[in-house]
Design brief:
mainly alpha
Length: 259
């Protein structure tokens, strides 16, 4: 139905709609805001494919050596992921980003000029991404830690006896065993990055001056103004990125099966 409505002028309420062909897509391609939203989505994807992945993977390795306390660490690190996005957003808005009583306000009053991260067009996107990364990396840590624990003990013991360094252990022992998990999470991150909505909407609503506009908030702006046909066209483009990522994963998985 989304694909169908993308080629119509449906307002989301009326029982009738007109077939307008590619008009919605033409208007979208000619809209500067669409390209800004697409650019922000790409930046967001790159951030999430690097920072939370690196933190989650490194932390999961440290937990391998915390034989007695790893469960407690897991519970603490996964807590932001368990909390509702609204709760996390309110915590950051009031405790971190508040210019009067928050951490940023405290630092600004003591000579550190951080300004207003959410109100600055140059930093708003990264400030929102920072909140979502804080929320998300614990989930990746749990997934990677579970995969690392599946590594055969005899391989680990043999690498220790051979005097392998940390990097050699990762490259030749751990990575081959968690490669499939890492590929899956990379694809899932790409899909989720192009669907991201909650933290952007809660923290900035796409502002200031469209600096944090995403394809999802761009589509939502059409929904709220009863331009459902245009919103469906944007949603269709978002789906194509997810489909492309899923297709790449399927292709990679088939290659592994053939090997």
């Amino acid at each position: 139905m989304t694909i169908l409505y993308g080629f119509t002028d449906w307002n989301g309420v009326s029982a009738n709609y007109n077939w307008i062909g590619l008009q919605n897509f033409k208007e979208m391609v000619n809209d500067e805001i669409f390209w800004r939203a697409l650019r922000n989505n790409i930046i967001w994807t790159v951030l999430f494919l690097t920072i939370p992945v690196g933190i989650g993977l490194l932390t999961s390795f440290f937990l391998l050596y915390a034989k007695r306390t790893y469960k407690a660490y897991q519970a603490v690190f996964i807590m932001p992921y368990i909390l509702a996005p609204v709760t996390n957003a309110m915590l950051w808005l009031n405790i971190i980003f508040n210019p009067v009583s928050g951490l940023i306000g405290y630092l600004n009053s003591h000579g550190f000029n951080f300004g207003a991260p959410l109100g600055n067009t140059k930093t708003a996107l990264y400030a929102v991404a920072g909140v979502d990364i804080w929320h998300y990396w614990g989930f990746l840590m749990v997934v990677y830690f579970a995969a690392l624990r599946q590594t055969p003990e005899d391989q680990i013991e043999a690498s220790v006896l051979e005097g392998c360094s940390f990097w050699q252990q990762f490259k030749y022992i751990y990575y081959p065993n968690i490669k499939t998990t890492m590929k899956l999470m990379f694809i899932m991150i790409i899909i989720f990055s192009f669907m991201t909505f909650d933290y952007v909407y809660l923290l900035t609503g796409g502002g200031p001056a469209r600096a944090t506009e995403m394809l999802s908030t761009y589509a939502n702006s059409y929904f709220t103004t009863f331009q459902t046909g245009k919103a469906a066209a944007v949603a269709f483009i978002m789906s194509m990125f997810g489909l492309l990522a899923a297709s790449i994963y399927v292709r990679l998985s088939r290659g592994e099966e053939l090997e």
